[in-house]
Amino acid sequence: MSRSEQALTPKLVKKLWVAFIALVLLMGASYMLITSYFANKHHQETAQRLNADVANHVIAEKFQNASPFLEDGSVNKALFGDLMHDMMAVNQGIEVYLLDNNGTILYSVVLDPNDKDATKSVSLTPINSFIANKGEKFVLGDDPRNPGEQKIFSAAPYSVAGHEGYIYIILAGKKFQEVSSTLMGQYFAKLGLGATLLTTLFSALIGLLSIWFLTKNLRLITGTVRKFQDGDLNARIENPDKSDIAIFAKSFNEMADTIVGNMDKMKSVDLLRRELIANVSHDLRTPLAVLKGYIETLQIKRETLSESEKEEYLQITHDNVDKLSKLIDQLFEYSKLEAEQVTPVKEPFSITELSHDLIAKFKVLAQKEKIELQLDNPNENCMVFADVSLVERALQNLIENAIKYTEPNGKVTLFIRRKDKNVEINITDTGTGIPVNEQPFIFDRYKQVNKSTKKQGYGLGLAIVKKIMELHDTTITVLSKPKEGSSFIFNLPAYQV
Ligand code: ADP
């Protein structure tokens, strides 16, 4: 037995078997009850039809020669007693009653006069119905010896010497009942046993087949789940739509896809993280080594260095500390964006005002580099709906780059234009430009085009910009020609005032 079958056998198959046995027993019992009901009815109907004429016969045969009543009007018990005894000797199952025309019992040998429970009269409705239908309709009448019970009977009216009434014959009397129930008991014991055995045999066969078919798909699914569990990540349930438990099969396949997808994601995040650590340690090492070198020189040669040399060394140390803190800032920011820990808080704000502020902030740096920094249309106030601090960060990186990669006497311009439902932001410089084949990669982390320039940072600036654009469901494009300049363009949703 395979592992999957072992897992299925104890619980599911056991439950199925229990349900099955319960079903078989229930079926057996219902079968017996139904059979007994109809067999009994069939028997009663047959007996009534067969004996329908008995009462008529009694009247025709016996009341012709002798009256059942004496001259004083009382019942001729001797005659009637003989008659009844004769009849009951032939057929012990019957009980004969003499009724008046109200249904009152005048006489019967089977009735004990001291029996207080015995009925004194019977209902005439079934008797009249029986007579009207000439005994061809199945009808039950009162049983005087068992009040409340209904029995098959034969009846016929008489009219003798001024007396009118009925001969009423119960066809399945007490004696009949006793014999019948003994036989029935035996018969049903045999029938029940036979029927149950046969039903069990057939049911077991059908049950085995059904359980095998029912659990076939389940076995298949369990097998695939086990394979997956054992490390075969490509294991999937084939044709899940055709499975009897399609929802389960499909859910498993979807779950497996999600798990594999998440694993891939985790692997790539892990790879990124490792790459980041490797790059960070490399990036930190250079400025740290420079710092260490200058500090050591200052310590060792403190006495011999001139004041201007000391000043220069301190300046270099200062610049490197600046670089380091900027790098750490950028790394921190990028890692947060990469780890999707930043949720943009979007609100309406004036991008024009923000650009004014940034231009004011970078004015000194631009002047130092002899670069003209300006906003193209300073008076048109454009409102956007975005995260102000993230957009500020992106613009800052783009302006910084534009200044960084533009030669003295160059120009950096910010164009802000309303375009339908968006506001287009364009940062154009007259700088070095970017070769066309390099342009697709400049937004990748650590991507630096011209490594020879001293101005370069750490290749994180544009990667951060790209992440910020993604958080705003927008993209940034670059148009650039080497030696002519570059334009970085992106759109933000305009805010309607
Ligand atoms: P870095 O810190 O090196 O500037 P960025 O991610 O900001 O890194 O930019 C990636 C690369 O794209 C830069 O190294 C540079 O070669 C190129 N680049 C970015 N902006 C400009 C620009 N305005 N003009 C020319 N080249 C640019």
TrEMBL record:
Keywords: ATP-binding, Nucleotide-binding. This is ATP-binding protein. It comes from Meishania litoralis.
